[in-house]
């Protein structure tokens, strides 16, 4: 039995949109049966795996991407089943269970997209599904809308920020969803930029509407790291893709020099210290480090629990705790030096592949997106995690863009499969 290509795409699209929309609904605060919604990814994984089996071919250029997934899977199995801190055993088991299914979700989605050159369809589905959710959220919570300019100024100047959530469980989820949609809009625009579709009204109406809603929600959430991360993506896209500035050694070194100069100026003028102080990120270390020393191991950490469990469930550990918002600090505190090396290696592989791959417009955009996510993850635990819906989409994009043989929607490789 062989499913025709267009039918397979229809089946995948329905499964993906329903699953993604349901996972987005899971992060809505007032929604009943939220925990039940998380289980929607179970049938999705089995269904898409069957679709992948019908094609039954793994492209040669996906080895590095598969290695990244395997590192994360081994990391989850190792710290979810072997190095288990008895104090937090229940929390560890639950987190490891959710992480395994998250990684399987990303794996089967990546395999389907890469096998069938469905990147264009994947981006389009993700952009409209997540964008629709933001539109619904804004329509239901119109009182959370603020002037974007005021929101931007307020986010970086106010001692106490007024953070609007638009129904999400936390303003951080709102900012992550908005950041995802705004970044997806660049992929969406780049994919269609060289086609006749860009001349049609539906493209610009949908593009500008969704981007406008996402931008307002991002500013209204007053999430500084989300705003800066979005700026990084748009800046890199504008400089190296839209304005076509060639990437040469001189340009690269100049960019590195300017980035270092900006950091030095921010530190020297006290701006960074001011932002750091207002963010309360020092609590990630000052409060949790004594706990780490008392109950953890420098090699295997405290235990692979959710980062939010450090704060939300204070009965886990017999000492004071604070939320572990910083991804890199969280990985070290939760899984120690061994876990940090494994995750660091996976992230380094992605970076190297994005740097050495052919510098198409889409690859440059993906590199900017990845650098922005690394910055974002310094402040939030939103990279390769089941807790943020953005991670389900972002992780798949990174795996696809680091794969040499994956059609990125370019005209020269576009066919009936990649069109979706």
What does this structure look like?
This protein has 420 residues and is an all-alpha fold. It has one domain. It is 69% helix and 0% strand. The protein has 18 helices and no strands. Helix 1 runs parallel beside helix 6 (119-140) and helix 8 runs parallel beside helix 10 (224-242). The radius of gyration is 21 Å and the shape is globular. The chain starts with a helix and ends in a 19-residue tail after the last helix. Mean pLDDT is 83; it is low at 414-420.
Strand content: under 5%
* Termini Cα gap: 21 Å
Radius of gyration: 21 Å
Molecular shape: globular
Secondary-structure-derived class: mainly alpha
* Domain module tally: 1
* Oligomer classification: single chain
* Largest β sheet strand count, sense and barrel closure: none
Query: How many strand segments?
Result: 0
Regions with pLDDT < 50 over 5+ consecutive residues?
414-420
Number of helices: 18
Mean pLDDT figure: 83
Q: Please bin the fraction of helical residues.
A: 55-70%
Order of helices and strands: HHHHHHHHHHHHHHHHHH
What's the arrangement of secondary structure elements?
Blueprint: H1 5-26, H2 34-37, H3 41-55, H4 63-82, H5 89-115, H6 119-140, H7 148-157, H8 171-192, H9 201-221, H10 224-242, H11 249-268, H12 271-279, H13 282-286, H14 288-295, H15 309-312, H16 327-356, H17 361-379, H18 389-401
Helix pairs in contact: 1-3, 1-6, 3-5, 4-5, 4-16, 5-18, 6-8, 6-9, 7-9, 8-9, 8-10, 8-17, 8-18, 10-17, 16-17
